[in-house]
Amino acid sequence: MKKQLVFLIGFVVVVVTIAEMIGMQFISIGNTTITVLPLVFSVLIAMLLGLPMIRKGLIAKIYSKTNIQFSAKYLLYIMLPLMARYGADVAPRLREILSVGWVFLFQELGNVGTVILGLPIALFLGLRREAIGATLGLGREGELAYISEKYTLNSPEGRGVLSLYLIGTLFGSIFFSIFAPIMAGLGLDYRALAMSSGVGSASMMTAASSSLIALMPENETTIAAYAAASQLLTSFLGTYTMVFIAVPLQRFMYNLLTGGSRRGKETN
């Protein structure tokens, strides 16, 4: 096990080094400039090398079941230093953030958008109980913990939230690094975009806010502070929003859209 862990750590160092050597890349589409971060390249490299057709020899040892389970188990601990960085970004601009505090609270209601918009689409595509796990939120740690505790990850609901968690990990940072500058190019206020970067995912927040900073370096401190404050607020209040607003709303919508079937009622 220790040998496999050494392979994993060495692999991470190599992938991060390659991604940093590639550096930040800019792609111009019309009047919009899309910023592709080193984080995106590291995700793509790790994803491509994990394909079954490539996963042989040393690569197979790196992507062993033991290493995958280790990475999933300790991911949260690895993110703790980044959480501390959020606090350091927020503190210098705390007075400014408190002056618009109600806006940060209001944007928390956006967390129910996955239920309102996502649940009908998921049911239309043929998902049933899997849709409950997949549309409760963005499928980050809070939703993953709630679904795993209530249904277990071996249930259809668990498969739904776990699938979304994996998809968000692989593609979320890529999407947000592209989407944020596009919205900025359409004229949306950079402070609103910075606030919307805090969706409960550290990698997505970093990708979105870094893309904005690359476009507007003169507003770097404001963007970083607003994004970090929004991320912290989502982490703190997101669980309560999920439990007291998203879950009852999802239960009502699921039973309504499935015709109040016995299966739907038992699920919720």
Tally of separate helices = 14
The total strand number stands at 2
Order of helices and strands: HEEHHHHHHHHHHHHH
Strand order of the biggest β-sheet? 1-2
Helical fraction: over 70%
Q: Give the rounded overall mean pLDDT.
A: 80
Supply the helix-strand structural class.
Answer: mainly alpha
Radius of gyration: 20 Å
Q: How does the major sheet shape up? A: 2 strands, antiparallel
Beta-strand residue fraction:
under 5%
Measured distance between first and last alpha carbons: 40 Å
Uncertain regions spanning at least 5 consecutive residues = 262-267
Silhouette: globular
Summarize this, please?
This protein is mostly helical and 268 residues long.
Topology, element by element:
Layout: H1 2-22, E1 25-29, E2 32-36, H2 38-49, H3 58-62, H4 65-90, H5 94-99, H6 101-107, H7 113-124, H8 129-135, H9 141-151, H10 156-185, H11 190-196, H12 202-215, H13 220-257, H14 262-267
What does this structure look like?
The structure is a single chain. The chain is mainly alpha-helical and about 270 residues long. The protein is about 75% helix and about 5% strand. It contains 14 helices and two strands, in the order αββααααααααααααα. A two-stranded antiparallel sheet has the order 1-2. Strand 1 (about 25-30) and strand 2 form a beta hairpin. Helix 8 (about 130-135) crosses helix 10 (about 155-185). The longest helix is centred in the last third of the chain and has 38 residues, at about 220-255.
